[in-house]
Amino acid sequence: MEETPSHGRRKGKGHTGKAIIGAFAAALFIKLFLFDFMITEGHSMDPAIKPGALLMVCKVFYGFRIPGSGVYLVRWGIPREGHVVVFFTPLGELAVKRAGKALPGNMFYALGDNQSQSYDSENYGPVSNDNVIGRVLGIK
């Protein structure tokens, strides 16, 4: 009986690499499509959200969209009054505000909790539901 040379390879060595690649792919999928973590700046949401707070944002709370675009493949909801949402303002800036009154034309009014220091819909007007990235589910 002949032995086949192993060429210095150990069994199972390739599994570690595959596990790392699989874990990276899963984490990337979760970040792009499902959840994201963001750190806040500014005082517009004081006292509910302090500057430097870590937010957990559910990107699929209102629907499933193509990352980096305002295109929803499937939508099952829109921001309701009182929801804290992350969105792009009409000027393209990233913002965290409380959804206010729903408006005609797929829009809503965004308001900061700290009205004296908030830069919100009072300044830039209503926000399109298509600009919403997700709903804030956790604050740390």
In short:
The chain is of the alpha+beta class. It has helices at about 15-35, 120-125; strands spanning about 35-40, 55-60, 65, 70-75, 85-90, 95-105, 105-110, 125-130, 130-140.
Note down, in words, how this protein is organized.
There is one protein chain. This protein is an alpha+beta fold. It has one domain (37-139): Umud Fragment, subunit A. Helices cover 19% and strands 34% of the residues. It is built from two helices and nine strands, in the order αβββββββαββ. Strands 1-2-9-5-6-7-8 form a seven-stranded antiparallel β-sheet. A two-stranded antiparallel sheet has the order 3-4. Strand 3 (63-65) and strand 4 (72-75) form a beta hairpin. The N and C termini lie far apart (65 Å). The model has no long low-confidence stretch (mean pLDDT 86).
- The CATH class designation is Mainly Beta
* Largest sheet: spatial strand order: 1-2-9-5-6-7-8
Radius of gyration: 22 Å
The number of helical segments is 2
The second-level CATH architecture is Ribbon
* Overall body shape: globular
Query: Considering DSSP H and I runs of 4 or more, what fraction of the residues is helical?
Result: 10-25%
First-last Cα distance: 65 Å
Largest sheet composition: 7 strands, antiparallel
Number of strands: 9
Strand content: 25-35%
Q: Could you name the ranges where pLDDT drops below 50 across 5 or more consecutive residues? A: none
Mean pLDDT over the residues: 86
Helix and strand run = HEEEEEEEHEE
* Tally of domains: 1
**Mind telling me the CATH superfamily name?**
Umud Fragment, subunit A
According to CATH, what is the topology?
A: Umud Fragment, subunit A
Helix- and strand-based class?
alpha+beta
